[in-house]
Amino acid sequence: MSGKRVTQLSLTALAGAFIVLALAVTYLPAPEPAPEEPTVSATTYTVENCVADECLAVPNFRYPARALPAQLEEALTRSLQDTYQSIAYQTLMLTELGEGSPFLNIIRTDQHYLAAQKALFDKYNLTIPQNAWFDRIQAPAEGLDRQLACARGYELKQETVRLYRDDLLPLVTERPDLQKVFFAIKNAAETLQAPALERCYEEALATTTQEIAE
Length: 214
Prior knowledge:
The chain has 214 residues and is an all-alpha fold. The protein has helices spanning 2-26, 52-55, 70-97, 103-123, 133-136, 146-168, 176-213.
C-alpha cells in the first residue's frame, strides 16, 4: 500500500512537471523572425560604396568558386580591358598636359573599380592580365591640347557606356557579383566621368574661342 502510494505520488509529480513545462513553453516569447536579406539593386552602387566586400557578395556563396563559363570569363576580361584602356588614356593626358582635373579624378575612380574587377578574377581563380594599353595609346603626332584630350576622353566613356549597356550587362543577369560591379562602372562612366569630360571640352573650347577673338 505504501509502495503504491509512492508510485502514485511520483506519477502525480511527473505529470505536474510536464504541465509546468508546457505552460512555460506556451508563454515563452515568440522568437523574432530572422531579418530578411535586403535586395540590393546594383544601380545603387557608386564609386564610394562599391567595394569588394559588398559588390562581390553572393548569397549562400561558398569558396572555392567554380570556374566561370567561357562567355562570362570573356565578359569580365572585356570589362577589365576597358578599365585598363581608360586608366592608360587618362594617365597619358595627365602626363602630356600636366593638368589634374578631370583626368586625375577619373584615374582614381577607375582604380577603385579595377580593384573590384581584380577581386573577381581572384574569386574565380583567373589569371589577371597586365595592362598593355600604356604601350598602345600614344599622343597624336599633330599635337595635343586640352580640348582634343577631353573630346577623345568623352568618346571613350560613351564607348564604355555602350559596352556595358549593350554587351556586358545582358550577360550577367544571373551573376549578382559581376552585375553589381558592371552596373557601378557603367553608372560612373555615364553620370560622373563623361559629364566631367564634356564640361572640360566645353571650357577648353570657350577658352580657345576667346583667345582667337582677342
